[in-house]
Amino acid sequence: MTSAPALWAEFDSAERAVAGARLLRARGLKRLDACSPYPLIELEDELGIERPSLIPKLVLLGASLGGTVAFCVIWWTAAVAYPLDVGGRPLNSVVADIPIVFELSVLGAALTTFTLCLGLSGMPRLSHPLEALEGFERTSIDRFWIGACDRGALDDAELAEQLQQLGALRIHRFVGSEAAREG
């Protein structure tokens, strides 16, 4: 998220972080993000994380594609390319194909999930620009960070002052991967 212009504020309590997110949302900023040591339902509500994920539909598509490919390969090899008439049995039996179709459906779903997990999380990435911020290592212990990626947040001195009045310990501004620290 920090590849775009961004403003990040550090807070020492969950209540202040939620208040900071509420302020950013009230100022009309749409692209908000947060880092916290534990999940906060109130913070998720303030960030506007409500849209349903597309991931389950894509995983179902991957499973369907895996099963379809498995069935087509089995059918083509048994009925078209190498037909063997053994004891008058049908060239392709759907019942006999079920275990392989099921297994390749599971494989298709697993590969789709793995690929989406890596792709959507931005991995593999050895470091993130936020990790260079002073004090960010305490996020896993007791610090809360609220970020706004709207360009208007960068130029708004009044917004930074209001965040500090709410208890922001530090405010950092990003342009690309460069950070500048205030307060």
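(the above was protein one; protein two follows)
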Amino acid sequence: MTRQRRILTPEHVPIVLVPAGVGSRFLALIVDFILLTGLTTVLAVALNLVLPRGIGAAAVTTLGFALTWGYHVYFETRRQGRTPGKRFAGLRVVDGRGLPITVEQSLLRNIVRALDFLPVFYGAGGLCTLLDRDRRRLGDILADTLVVRERASARDAATARAARLPAAHRPNALADPGTLRRIRHRLTLEERELLLDLCLRADRLGARARYDLMEEVGAHYRRKLEIDQPHLSAENLVRDLAALAFGAGAER
């Protein structure tokens, strides 16, 4: 039976996360290991060719350390929790509440990777993953993170529901290249679904509750997506974002 973690957002929108299994996590690990080893080897050869032997060896050691730590932290915090290996295996790492992980969480889960690696090639991490109900290794437990499966079916279902959005009677104020690019790279699937659900359910809310909720969500995405349109109301901003997140201008 597939394990799931159900989370209720502050806006009372349920999100279902499906923890990744040991096999898919191992596949992602192998892909990342191959890529990281190949990149380190190529750069090490290049440094040894252009630098004196002693300096070259020190530079290679420093480079290997920086790449080993920076590779995972960069992709986990700047690429929606997906290293190339996780993307290949259809996985990503998220905060325990389903949110994008922070730099601090990424650093912690990757520092603890050294313990997960013991006694040989992720023996402790693999055992912990098998025993934990959410398939977390030690680093995930301490950092409160979760590796989840991306679900194409969820994206398809959300896209189908997006067709229920009422047609706008004005041009989309956010349909500019810069905002579209930020939507593609900064909005997770769960955030897109939240915006969509909020728009579809807004009419069921009282006027005051609807205004307050739209103001709060709109203010958050003004900051996150660097939207500088003070004359655009919060509700119109949220509706424009939802339309673009599932429209032709915002393919993933």
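Reviewer note on protein two: Confidence is low (pLDDT under 50) at residues 248-252.
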